[in-house]
Design a protein that fits this description.
Strand content: under 5%
Number of strands: 5
Mean pLDDT: 83
Number of domains: 1
Structural class: mainly alpha
Shape: globular
Oligomer: single chain
Radius of gyration: 21 Å
Helix content: 40-55%
Low-confidence stretches: 1-24, 186-194
Protein backbone atom coordinates (compact mmCIF):
# COMPACT_ATOMS: atom_id res chain seq x y z
CA UNK A 1 0.00 0.00 0.00
CA UNK A 2 2.86 2.37 0.79
CA UNK A 3 4.60 1.59 -2.49
CA UNK A 4 1.35 2.17 -4.35
CA UNK A 5 0.97 5.59 -2.73
CA UNK A 6 4.44 6.61 -3.85
CA UNK A 7 3.68 5.60 -7.40
CA UNK A 8 0.29 7.32 -7.37
CA UNK A 9 1.78 10.59 -6.19
CA UNK A 10 4.26 10.67 -9.05
CA UNK A 11 7.39 10.33 -6.94
CA UNK A 12 9.30 8.25 -9.43
CA UNK A 13 12.27 7.06 -7.43
CA UNK A 14 12.29 3.59 -5.91
CA UNK A 15 9.34 3.65 -3.50
CA UNK A 16 10.63 0.68 -1.58
CA UNK A 17 13.70 2.69 -0.59
CA UNK A 18 11.62 5.54 0.75
CA UNK A 19 13.23 8.03 -1.64
CA UNK A 20 11.28 10.95 -3.03
CA UNK A 21 11.63 12.72 -6.35
CA UNK A 22 14.37 15.34 -6.23
CA UNK A 23 15.32 14.52 -2.66
CA UNK A 24 18.34 12.66 -1.39
CA UNK A 25 16.71 9.87 0.61
CA UNK A 26 18.26 7.13 2.71
CA UNK A 27 17.99 3.86 0.82
CA UNK A 28 17.34 1.88 4.02
CA UNK A 29 14.74 4.17 5.55
CA UNK A 30 11.08 4.54 4.63
CA UNK A 31 9.52 7.40 6.65
CA UNK A 32 6.03 6.13 5.86
CA UNK A 33 6.64 2.74 7.51
CA UNK A 34 5.43 2.12 11.08
CA UNK A 35 8.26 2.88 13.53
CA UNK A 36 10.01 -0.10 15.14
CA UNK A 37 9.54 1.37 18.64
CA UNK A 38 6.63 2.26 20.92
CA UNK A 39 5.85 5.66 22.39
CA UNK A 40 6.48 4.16 25.84
CA UNK A 41 10.11 3.59 24.85
CA UNK A 42 10.51 7.28 24.01
CA UNK A 43 8.84 8.26 27.26
CA UNK A 44 11.16 5.98 29.24
CA UNK A 45 14.24 7.57 27.66
CA UNK A 46 13.32 11.07 28.85
CA UNK A 47 14.71 11.98 32.31
CA UNK A 48 12.05 12.17 35.02
CA UNK A 49 12.82 15.76 35.93
CA UNK A 50 11.88 16.85 32.41
CA UNK A 51 8.25 16.18 33.32
CA UNK A 52 8.33 18.43 36.39
CA UNK A 53 6.44 21.73 35.99
CA UNK A 54 7.75 24.62 38.02
CA UNK A 55 5.06 27.34 38.16
CA UNK A 56 7.50 29.93 39.53
CA UNK A 57 9.90 29.32 36.68
CA UNK A 58 7.03 29.56 34.20
CA UNK A 59 5.82 32.80 35.77
CA UNK A 60 9.38 34.08 35.57
CA UNK A 61 9.27 33.69 31.80
CA UNK A 62 5.97 35.57 31.76
CA UNK A 63 7.50 38.41 33.79
CA UNK A 64 10.49 38.51 31.46
CA UNK A 65 8.41 38.71 28.30
CA UNK A 66 5.86 41.19 29.65
CA UNK A 67 8.69 43.45 30.85
CA UNK A 68 10.27 43.40 27.40
CA UNK A 69 6.89 44.12 25.74
CA UNK A 70 6.26 47.20 27.88
CA UNK A 71 9.85 48.39 27.56
CA UNK A 72 9.68 48.19 23.77
CA UNK A 73 6.37 50.08 23.69
CA UNK A 74 7.69 52.76 26.05
CA UNK A 75 10.85 53.19 23.99
CA UNK A 76 8.89 53.44 20.74
CA UNK A 77 6.53 56.07 22.15
CA UNK A 78 9.41 58.06 23.59
CA UNK A 79 11.47 58.06 20.40
CA UNK A 80 8.44 58.29 18.06
CA UNK A 81 10.65 58.17 15.00
CA UNK A 82 9.89 56.57 11.65
CA UNK A 83 13.40 55.22 11.72
CA UNK A 84 12.59 53.35 14.92
CA UNK A 85 9.02 52.21 14.21
CA UNK A 86 9.96 49.39 11.77
CA UNK A 87 12.50 48.07 14.27
CA UNK A 88 9.87 48.25 17.01
CA UNK A 89 7.30 46.40 14.88
CA UNK A 90 9.68 43.54 14.12
CA UNK A 91 10.83 43.24 17.74
CA UNK A 92 7.39 43.61 19.31
CA UNK A 93 5.76 41.23 16.84
CA UNK A 94 8.37 38.65 17.79
CA UNK A 95 7.61 39.25 21.47
CA UNK A 96 3.88 38.81 20.78
CA UNK A 97 4.82 35.41 19.35
CA UNK A 98 6.78 34.63 22.55
CA UNK A 99 3.70 35.62 24.59
CA UNK A 100 1.61 33.28 22.44
CA UNK A 101 3.98 30.37 23.13
CA UNK A 102 3.60 30.86 26.91
CA UNK A 103 -0.19 30.91 26.55
CA UNK A 104 0.18 27.81 24.39
CA UNK A 105 1.93 26.09 27.32
CA UNK A 106 -0.98 27.09 29.55
CA UNK A 107 -3.40 25.47 27.10
CA UNK A 108 -1.40 22.23 27.20
CA UNK A 109 -1.14 22.25 30.99
CA UNK A 110 2.67 22.28 30.77
CA UNK A 111 2.81 25.72 32.42
CA UNK A 112 1.94 24.30 35.85
CA UNK A 113 -0.05 21.56 37.56
CA UNK A 114 -2.62 24.12 38.69
CA UNK A 115 -5.53 24.12 36.24
CA UNK A 116 -6.84 27.49 37.46
CA UNK A 117 -3.42 29.15 37.18
CA UNK A 118 -3.00 27.79 33.66
CA UNK A 119 -6.37 29.16 32.55
CA UNK A 120 -5.99 32.58 34.21
CA UNK A 121 -2.49 33.16 32.83
CA UNK A 122 -3.45 31.73 29.44
CA UNK A 123 -6.50 33.97 29.20
CA UNK A 124 -4.53 37.09 30.07
CA UNK A 125 -1.64 36.33 27.74
CA UNK A 126 -3.72 35.30 24.75
CA UNK A 127 -6.28 38.06 25.21
CA UNK A 128 -3.46 40.62 25.06
CA UNK A 129 -2.64 39.45 21.53
CA UNK A 130 -6.25 38.91 20.43
CA UNK A 131 -6.24 35.12 20.56
CA UNK A 132 -9.38 33.34 21.89
CA UNK A 133 -7.76 31.18 24.56
CA UNK A 134 -10.28 28.35 25.00
CA UNK A 135 -11.25 28.22 21.33
CA UNK A 136 -7.61 27.90 20.38
CA UNK A 137 -6.85 25.45 23.21
CA UNK A 138 -9.60 23.05 22.13
CA UNK A 139 -8.71 23.28 18.45
CA UNK A 140 -5.02 22.80 19.19
CA UNK A 141 -5.73 19.73 21.31
CA UNK A 142 -7.61 18.27 18.35
CA UNK A 143 -4.57 18.99 16.18
CA UNK A 144 -2.23 17.15 18.57
CA UNK A 145 -4.54 14.17 18.83
CA UNK A 146 -4.94 13.85 15.05
CA UNK A 147 -1.77 15.21 13.48
CA UNK A 148 -0.93 13.55 10.20
CA UNK A 149 -4.53 12.48 9.62
CA UNK A 150 -5.92 14.26 6.57
CA UNK A 151 -9.52 13.72 7.65
CA UNK A 152 -9.29 14.83 11.28
CA UNK A 153 -6.36 17.23 11.75
CA UNK A 154 -7.06 20.96 12.10
CA UNK A 155 -3.70 22.65 11.42
CA UNK A 156 -2.21 23.13 7.95
CA UNK A 157 -4.15 20.13 6.67
CA UNK A 158 -3.37 19.14 3.06
CA UNK A 159 -6.27 19.39 0.63
CA UNK A 160 -7.50 16.13 -0.88
CA UNK A 161 -7.04 16.04 -4.64
CA UNK A 162 -10.78 16.11 -5.32
CA UNK A 163 -11.24 19.36 -3.35
CA UNK A 164 -8.06 20.92 -4.71
CA UNK A 165 -9.04 20.28 -8.33
CA UNK A 166 -12.33 22.16 -7.76
CA UNK A 167 -10.57 25.35 -6.58
CA UNK A 168 -10.47 28.20 -9.05
CA UNK A 169 -7.04 29.34 -10.19
CA UNK A 170 -7.17 32.61 -8.22
CA UNK A 171 -7.80 30.73 -4.97
CA UNK A 172 -4.89 28.40 -5.70
CA UNK A 173 -2.54 31.32 -6.31
CA UNK A 174 -3.68 33.10 -3.15
CA UNK A 175 -3.25 29.94 -1.08
CA UNK A 176 0.18 28.96 -2.42
CA UNK A 177 2.02 32.25 -2.96
CA UNK A 178 4.37 33.61 -0.30
CA UNK A 179 3.76 35.68 1.83
CA UNK A 180 -0.05 35.43 1.59
CA UNK A 181 -0.33 32.13 3.52
CA UNK A 182 1.65 33.76 6.33
CA UNK A 183 -1.37 35.96 7.02
CA UNK A 184 -3.80 33.08 7.24
CA UNK A 185 -4.59 33.60 10.91
CA UNK A 186 -7.75 35.73 11.28
CA UNK A 187 -6.82 39.41 11.11
CA UNK A 188 -9.42 41.44 12.89
CA UNK A 189 -8.14 44.01 15.38
CA UNK A 190 -10.24 46.93 16.52
CA UNK A 191 -12.46 49.79 15.41
CA UNK A 192 -11.72 52.53 17.92
CA UNK A 193 -9.72 52.98 21.09
CA UNK A 194 -10.88 55.20 23.97
CA UNK A 195 -7.28 55.88 25.05
CA UNK A 196 -5.16 56.45 21.89
CA UNK A 197 -6.11 57.64 18.44
CA UNK A 198 -6.41 54.86 15.81
CA UNK A 199 -3.05 55.64 14.18
CA UNK A 200 -1.31 55.33 17.54
CA UNK A 201 -3.06 52.00 18.25
CA UNK A 202 -2.01 50.77 14.82
CA UNK A 203 1.59 51.70 15.46
CA UNK A 204 1.75 50.35 19.01
CA UNK A 205 -0.34 47.20 18.65
CA UNK A 206 -1.65 46.71 15.12
CA UNK A 207 1.55 46.25 13.12
CA UNK A 208 3.24 44.12 15.82
CA UNK A 209 0.12 41.96 15.79
CA UNK A 210 0.58 41.36 12.06
CA UNK A 211 4.22 40.43 12.68
CA UNK A 212 3.04 38.02 15.39
CA UNK A 213 0.54 36.48 12.97
CA UNK A 214 3.31 35.95 10.43
CA UNK A 215 5.50 34.32 13.10
CA UNK A 216 2.59 32.09 14.11
CA UNK A 217 1.94 30.92 10.56
CA UNK A 218 5.64 30.73 9.63
CA UNK A 219 6.60 28.55 12.60
CA UNK A 220 3.54 26.28 12.64
CA UNK A 221 3.74 25.70 8.88
CA UNK A 222 7.43 24.75 9.01
CA UNK A 223 6.78 22.34 11.90
CA UNK A 224 4.77 20.23 9.49
CA UNK A 225 6.10 21.03 6.01
CA UNK A 226 9.15 21.80 3.96
CA UNK A 227 11.61 19.16 5.11
CA UNK A 228 14.13 17.87 2.59
CA UNK A 229 12.44 14.49 2.78
CA UNK A 230 8.69 14.44 2.15
CA UNK A 231 6.65 13.53 5.22
CA UNK A 232 3.70 11.13 4.94
CA UNK A 233 0.13 11.99 5.77
CA UNK A 234 -2.09 9.12 6.83
CA UNK A 235 -5.56 9.27 5.27
CA UNK A 236 -7.42 6.47 7.00
CA UNK A 237 -7.47 5.58 10.68
CA UNK A 238 -6.31 2.02 10.13
CA UNK A 239 -2.98 3.48 8.99
CA UNK A 240 -2.83 6.47 11.36
CA UNK A 241 -1.66 6.42 14.97
CA UNK A 242 -0.81 9.11 17.50
CA UNK A 243 2.86 8.10 17.42
CA UNK A 244 3.09 8.04 13.62
CA UNK A 245 1.35 11.38 13.39
CA UNK A 246 3.69 13.00 15.90
CA UNK A 247 6.76 11.62 14.14
CA UNK A 248 5.87 13.50 10.96
CA UNK A 249 6.51 16.83 12.69
CA UNK A 250 9.85 18.60 12.23
CA UNK A 251 12.23 20.36 14.60
CA UNK A 252 13.62 23.72 13.46
CA UNK A 253 16.55 25.83 14.62
CA UNK A 254 15.80 29.57 14.84
CA UNK A 255 19.21 30.78 16.04
CA UNK A 256 18.93 33.63 18.54
CA UNK A 257 15.14 33.40 18.34
CA UNK A 258 15.18 29.99 20.07
CA UNK A 259 15.56 31.56 23.49
CA UNK A 260 13.09 34.34 22.73
CA UNK A 261 10.22 32.08 21.67
CA UNK A 262 10.88 29.45 24.35
CA UNK A 263 12.37 26.71 22.15
CA UNK A 264 9.09 26.07 20.34
CA UNK A 265 11.21 24.85 17.41
CA UNK A 266 11.90 21.72 19.49
CA UNK A 267 8.63 20.36 18.24
CA UNK A 268 8.70 16.57 17.83
CA UNK A 269 8.90 15.77 21.55
CA UNK A 270 6.40 18.54 22.27
CA UNK A 271 3.95 16.95 19.84
CA UNK A 272 4.34 13.53 21.42
CA UNK A 273 4.38 14.77 25.03
CA UNK A 274 2.80 18.24 25.25
CA UNK A 275 2.85 18.00 29.06
CA UNK A 276 6.62 18.62 29.12
CA UNK A 277 7.44 22.27 30.01
CA UNK A 278 9.16 24.19 27.23
CA UNK A 279 12.32 24.66 29.31
CA UNK A 280 12.88 20.88 29.35
CA UNK A 281 12.20 20.20 25.66
CA UNK A 282 15.81 20.45 24.47
CA UNK A 283 17.04 18.01 27.11
CA UNK A 284 14.10 15.65 26.55
CA UNK A 285 14.78 15.65 22.81
CA UNK A 286 18.45 14.90 23.35
CA UNK A 287 17.51 11.92 25.55
CA UNK A 288 14.90 10.59 23.10
CA UNK A 289 16.98 10.80 19.92
CA UNK A 290 18.67 7.37 20.34
CA UNK A 291 15.21 5.78 20.46
CA UNK A 292 13.81 7.81 17.57
CA UNK A 293 16.71 7.04 15.27
CA UNK A 294 16.02 8.14 11.69
CA UNK A 295 12.47 9.11 12.59
CA UNK A 296 14.04 12.18 14.18
CA UNK A 297 15.13 14.67 11.53
CA UNK A 298 18.00 16.79 12.79
CA UNK A 299 17.26 20.47 12.14
CA UNK A 300 19.67 22.44 9.98
CA UNK A 301 21.83 24.68 12.16
CA UNK A 302 20.81 28.31 11.96
CA UNK A 303 22.87 31.46 12.01
CA UNK A 304 21.87 34.22 14.45
CA UNK A 305 18.65 34.67 12.43
CA UNK A 306 16.83 31.80 10.67
CA UNK A 307 17.07 33.18 7.14
CA UNK A 308 17.68 29.66 5.80
CA UNK A 309 14.09 28.70 6.63
CA UNK A 310 12.62 31.12 4.10
CA UNK A 311 13.82 28.92 1.24
CA UNK A 312 12.13 25.91 2.89
CA UNK A 313 8.93 27.92 3.19
CA UNK A 314 8.91 29.18 -0.39
CA UNK A 315 9.78 25.77 -1.83
CA UNK A 316 7.19 23.92 0.22
CA UNK A 317 4.33 26.32 -0.47
CA UNK A 318 5.25 26.18 -4.14
CA UNK A 319 5.27 22.37 -4.24
CA UNK A 320 2.96 20.99 -1.54
CA UNK A 321 -0.53 21.56 -2.94
CA UNK A 322 -2.71 18.49 -2.33
CA UNK A 323 -2.68 14.77 -1.58
CA UNK A 324 -4.15 11.86 -3.50
CA UNK A 325 -7.71 10.74 -2.75
CA UNK A 326 -6.54 7.12 -2.79
CA UNK A 327 -4.00 5.21 -0.72
CA UNK A 328 -3.55 4.77 3.01
CA UNK A 329 -0.24 6.67 3.16
CA UNK A 330 0.07 9.64 0.84
CA UNK A 331 2.49 12.45 0.09
CA UNK A 332 1.98 15.96 -1.22
CA UNK A 333 1.68 16.45 -4.96
CA UNK A 334 2.41 19.55 -7.02
CA UNK A 335 -0.03 21.27 -9.35
CA UNK A 336 2.11 21.81 -12.49
CA UNK A 337 -0.27 24.46 -13.80
CA UNK A 338 0.21 26.58 -10.68
CA UNK A 339 3.98 26.10 -10.76
CA UNK A 340 4.14 27.19 -14.41
CA UNK A 341 2.14 30.35 -13.70
CA UNK A 342 4.51 31.34 -10.89
CA UNK A 343 7.62 30.70 -12.95
CA UNK A 344 6.42 32.88 -15.85
Amino acid sequence: MVEKSYLETGNNKDARNGSVDGIGGDGDFDPSAPPPFKIAEIRAAIPKHCWVKNPWRSLGYVLRDVTVVFALAAAALYLDSWICWPLYWAAQGTMFWAIFVLGHDCGHGSFSNNHLLNNVVGHILHSSILVPYHGWRISHRTHHQNHGNVENDESWVPLPEKIYKNLDLTTRIMRYTVPLPMLAYPIYLWRRSPVFDPVQVLKIHGVPYLIFVMWLDFVTYLHHHGHEQKLPWSVFRQEWSYLRGGLTTVDRDYGWINGIHHDIGTHVIHHLFPQIPHYHLVEATRAAKPVLGKYYREPKKSGPFPFHLFSNLVRSIGEDHYVSDTGDVVFYQTDPRLRNIKSN
